[in-house]
Design a protein that fits this description.
Keywords: Membrane, Transmembrane, Transmembrane helix. With 279 residues, the chain is mainly α. It has one domain: Growth Hormone, Chain: A. Helix 7 crosses helix 8. The N and C termini lie far apart (65 Å).
Amino acid sequence: MGPQPPNSRVNSSQTSLDTLHSEPASAERTSFSSRTWKYLNAPVRPCGFVELQLLVTTFCTGLQDAVSFPDFHCFASNQTGNTVFLMLAIALPEMNGEWFLTSNIGMALGMFIAGALITGQLGHIIGRQRRLWLIFCNLIQTAMVFATAGIQYVHGIDLEGPKTPVCIALLAFAAGSQVVQSRSLEMTEITTAMATAAWLDLIIDRRILAVENRSRNRRAAFLASLVLGSLAGAYMFKNVGSPAAIAVSGAGKLLVTVMFFFSPAEEEKKKTEKEGELV
C-alpha cells in the first residue's frame, strides 16, 4: 500500500483526539449518574435535620385536623377520636348527623388504615428509610393535600355530598402514609399525629428536669408544633376558610419533600466515623 494522503492522516488524528476527549466526558457523566443514583437510594439517617422535617409535618397535621373536624365532623389524622365516634355510631345510630357522620368517620378511618398499610408494607420491600422512597411518598401525600384544597376552592365545602368522601379519603390516606414514615425514621417521640402517648410519656419521664434529655425535647417540640398548627388552622378556618389552611398544609409538606433531598444519609455518618478513627 502507498502512503496515506495528508487529509486522511489529519482526519485519523482528529478522530483519535475526539475519542480521547469524549471518553473522559462520558466517564464523568456515568460517574455523576452513578453517584446521584447511589445518593437517592441511600438510607436517610435520623438526625436533627430530620427532626425539623417531622416537626414541620406535625404543624401541617394540626392545620388539617383543625379544619377537617368542623368541615366533615371527623378527623383526617386523629384516629383515636374517629374510632370512638365510630363505636358511638354503632351503639347509638340515632345520634348520626347530630354529633358526627358515620359515613365520613368510616371513610377517614378506612383510608387512614389503607394509607398506612400500603406505605408500611411496600416500605418493608423497598426500604423504609431509602431517600427515593421517602421523597416519592411525601410527593404523593403533598399532591393529595393540594388536590383536596383545589376541590374545596373550586366546588366549595359540604358536610355531605359526592365530593366530601373524596376530600376525606385524600387527607386520611395521606395522613396514614405520613405517620408510617415518621415511625420508619426511628423517632417514635414525633408521631406527627397522635398526641395522647406523647403527653403521657412527657409527664412521666424520669428525667423530665434533666438539662440534656433528647426524648423529652422531641416530645415537647412535637406537642408544641401540633398545638401551634391547630391554632393556626382554627384561625385560618375562621378568617380565610378551610381551603387556604389545606393549601398551606400542602405547601409545608412540599417543603418537607424538598428537604429530603438534603437529609444526611447513613453512609455519610459511617464515613465521618471512619475519618474520626483515622485521626
